[in-house]
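4.2 Preliminary Data

To establish feasibility before requesting continued support, the project team ran the inverse folding procedure on a target of 147 residues. The structure was first converted into the token representation described in Section 3, and no sequence information of any kind was made available to the design step. The complete token record follows.
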């Protein structure tokens, strides 16, 4: 639909259809002009909060202490859970990631762990591909029993 007063090469998309409850239908979720609006709003809100914190040094210090205590608590809980069945190391790394939001050393550790996990995932995928190739090449179709 072309609106009057707009240049001829500019078109305006019609609004997306909504369900009776005001939600987008399943086929339209995550697509169109509304995509990323919530993420953008969170990012903008976070940026405003950081500006407010930077304007007040005492509040910034209190925030940094709070993040440090929370991150350390998560790391300690994760370390307690390491010998038990469950996601102990995962909780430890989440705690380090929380600490990494305020402390550069913890951020470097988080980046190192992410690189290590990515390399491990790529090696695992390569191993699976190589194994499937080995299995498919070792099976002789004429040696298979016929029914």
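Position-by-position output of the design step:
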């Amino acid at each position: 639909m072309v609106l009057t007063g707009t240049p001829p090469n500019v078109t305006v998309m019609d609004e997306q259809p909504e369900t009776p409850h005001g939600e987008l239908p399943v086929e339209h979720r995550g697509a169109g002009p509304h995509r990323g609006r919530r993420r953008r709003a969170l990012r903008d809100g976070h940026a405003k909060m950081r500006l407010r914190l930077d304007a007040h040094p005492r509040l910034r210090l209190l925030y940094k202490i709070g993040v440090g205590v929370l991150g350390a608590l998560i790391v300690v809980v994760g370390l307690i859970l390491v010998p038990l069945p469950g996601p102990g190391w995962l909780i430890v790394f989440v705690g380090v990631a929380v600490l990494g939001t305020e402390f550069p050393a913890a951020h470097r550790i988080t980046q190192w762990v992410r690189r290590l996990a990515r390399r491990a995932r790529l090696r695992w995928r390569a191993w699976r591909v190589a194994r499937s190739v080995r299995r498919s090449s070792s099976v002789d179709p004429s040696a298979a029993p016929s029914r």
